[in-house]
Design brief:
With 443 residues, this protein is an alpha/beta fold. Helix content is 42%, strand content 14%. Helix 1 packs across helix 4 and helix 3 runs parallel beside helix 16. GO terms for molecular function: adenosylhomocysteinase activity.
Length: 443
């Protein structure tokens, strides 16, 4: 299929490069490739309009091509102005996989234009299903008056912690307009992507942006949830002296048991060399904090939104010098300054290429299963939304599917899984085929 013109990407001449990297990524994404094989022949998403608002990377391109291989009619934008990999976007467009509106370095105005374009099919109508990351596409549908007449939406599957928080807030107020599947809280998502993905891509981002030697430096990781755990582990692996801040005593105690010193920002503010926010909360690093930091202290965020660092206030109080794309020094009137990565936006995708394929295969296999699940429930209800088992609430995928996703990734790593005997299964009270744990188990 030739590109139709209904797209906007940076440079179509990057498509060959993108395809080469896509081919390599496919090899590292066994879950998605297995999904194509298992579900492809039945075309369960035939004719279904799927809109994606998720970092337009190589890994996401493999997800988009999987959805297309299952029959979906796909339009896509990125969920961050810096996260698009232009070669991935152009390869997908050239293959006719999806109509893509994304490039690295969008302005905020362009970002919302791209989101709107990806939401709107050429006939003026919207989509049936959304793959969202952070909830911006969902938010746009809830804020605007878009598609009031022909509201086709069957449901959304949400990728990240911050997006899930937004969905739950809407559902609690009774304002959610369609069913949502919380993909983030699949075990094979948040306990893998958020942890091991960040363990890979945080140091990658810091190093590509600054080339700083991390060994022996003092690094403060703000937040010790899933992202914070992987982030702190990666700094320790570089033999950086790693500190953690937390507000939750359980996570703080976990950090202590891992051997990290739990501190407040104030304790370390004038001593530490690197500060990374991972909280999904706002105002974690304030202007007052940055004023007190050492000259050339590195400040970055790996949480979803840039409000973890008081960027607006920093812009006003300093002179900004761009060092290279997504790396700036902000200098205070007294002459000292801080180096900020990706303008305070998630630095692993802004300064590097985000998580590697293998871990994203886990996340995106869950996304694919969630998209199939939304469709299946709708079809089973005779396409009557009121009768679907999914109403305007936030749902988890069943644990069987979580275990299936994990199982699909074991072979690649040469793991040999032990099988339960019937007697053992009876003794611990589970089925031989799983699920192996109660829903309360925390992994
Ligand atoms: P989480 O809820 O597991 O962890 C956040 C932690 O921050 C919690 O333990 C919380 O107690 C702590 N926290 C909240 N306010 C704080 C404060 N003022 N000071 C210190 N700690 C504080 O969430 P998770 O899954 O770790 O996600 C964190 C953020 O990262 C979210 O915005 C999520 O969407 C995003 N994310 C980013 C990824 C990336 O590739 N950049 C990947 C996955 C998630």
């Amino acid at each position: 299929v030739e590109a139709s013109g209904d797209f906007k990407v940076a440079d179509m001449s990057l498509a060959d490069f993108g395809r080469k990297e896509l081919d390599i990524a496919e090899h590292e994404m066994p879950g998605l490739m297995a999904a194509r094989k298992e579900f492809g022949p039945a075309q369960p998403l035939a004719g279904v309009r799927v809109m994606g608002s998720l970092h337009m990377t190589i890994q996401t391109a493999v997800l988009a091509e999987t959805l297309e291989a299952l029959g979906a009619d796909v339009r896509w934008c990125s969920c961050n102005i810096f996260s698009t990999q232009d070669h991935a976007a152009s390869a997908c467009v050239r293959a006719g996989t999806a109509n893509i509106f994304a490039w690295k370095g969008e302005t905020l105005e362009e970002y919302w234009w791209c989101t709107d374009k990806a939401l709107t099919w050429p006939d003026g109508e919207g989509m049936d299903q959304i793959v969202d990351d952070g909830g911006d596409a969902t938010l746009l549908l809830h804020e605007g008056k878009k598609f009031e007449e022909q509201f086709r939406m069957v449901g959304v599957s949400e990728e990240t912690t911050t997006g899930v928080h937004r969905l739950i807030a809407m559902a609690d107020k009774g304002e959610l307009l369609f069913p949502a599947i919380n993909v983030n809280d699949c075990v094979t998502k948040s306990k893998f992507d958020n942890v091991y993905g960040c363990r890979h891509s945080l140091p990658d981002g810091i190093m590509r942006a600054t080339d700083v030697m991390l060994s022996g430096k003092k690094v403060v990781i703000c937040g010790f949830g899933d992202v914070g755990k992987g982030s702190a582990a990666s700094m320790r692996a570089q033999n950086a002296i790693t500190y953690v801040t937390e507000i939750d005593p359980i996570c703080a105690l976990q950090a202590c048991m891992e051997g990290y010193q739990v501190v407040t920002m104030e304790d370390l503010i004038s001593e530490a060399d690197v500060f990374i926010t991972t909280t999904g909360n706002k105002d974690i690093i304030t202007l007052e904090h940055m004023k007190k930091m050492k000259n050339n202290a590195i400040v970055g965020n790996i949480g979803h939104f840039d409000n973890e660092i008081q960027m607006e206030q920093l812009e006003k109080a300093t002179t900004r010098m761009n060092i290279k794309p997504q790396c700036d020094k902000y200098t205070f009137p007294d002459g000292h300054g801080v180096i900020v990565l990706a303008e305070g936006r998630l630095l692993n995708l802004g300064c590097a290429t985000g998580h590697p394929s293998f871990v994203m295969s886990n996340s995106f296999t869950n996304q694919t299963l969630a998209q199939l699940e939304l469709r299946k429930a709708y079809v089973e209800a005779g396409k009557d939304k009121a009768k679907s088992k999914y109403q305007n609430q936030v749902y988890l995928l069943p644990k069987e599917l979580d275990e299936k996703v994990a199982r699909l990734h074991l072979g690649q790593l040469g793991a040999h899984l032990t099988e339960l005997s019937t007697e053992q299964a009876d003794y611990i009270g589970v089925k031989k085929s799983g699920p192996y744990k109660p829903t309360t188990y925390r992994y």
